[in-house]
Amino acid sequence: MKIELIPAIDIIGGQCVRLTKGDYDQKTVYSDSPATMAKEFEALGFQRLHVVDLDGAKSKHLVNDAVLKAITTETNLTVDFGGGIKTNEDIEKAFASGAAMVTIGSIAVTQPELFMGWLSTYGAERIILGADVRHGKISINGWKEDSSEDLLPFLRKYVDAGVKNVLCTEISKDGTLAGPAIDLYRRIMETYPELHLIASGGVSSKEDIEALDAAGIPAVVFGKAIYEGRIDLREVRCL
Question: Among this protein's residues, is 132 annotated catalytic?
Fold first, then answer.
């Protein structure tokens, strides 16, 4: 198996949670200590972790940098971090708190010049373009708003500008355990084969991960399937 496996930790109020379809009213708390959860992932042999500050995404500024700092201090995981990064202060704080990479979505829609500046300043290896999709349109601000941006032209603009890493979440799938949007990810890879695409949303089983791998998707983020016991992490590490 070639696909990169990336467990996810979403944070609200300092706790490890998962939402369903991005709905803050459909929240399940799985741990009071994200750092402890991160250490468990590391103990199982994972090297990468996806961390989302859901408080930050909702409030439009970074909130849980202390939790990020605890994770990066207590583990050697390569952490990519997103949620609420809207200003130079936010992105500097995220990197200072130990993030190896940051995921930027809303700013790429609302302030493209600022995004381009960050891409130039920090480099394409440290910036992940967040492309969260609902009904074919890019969604922003913690999935609370849909923009007028269509997915593939949106990606073209930034691939041409040097973006190498894209995290794409199909919002209708996220937290549903209904299977990933493989056709969507395959279409992205066919259009932009040079991308390091990270698929997100709907993964419910080892078989879903195998299907993404067979479709040539470079990486996958998965969370709820772990916490609900649908995926045995020791098993997928052996794939």
Answer: yes
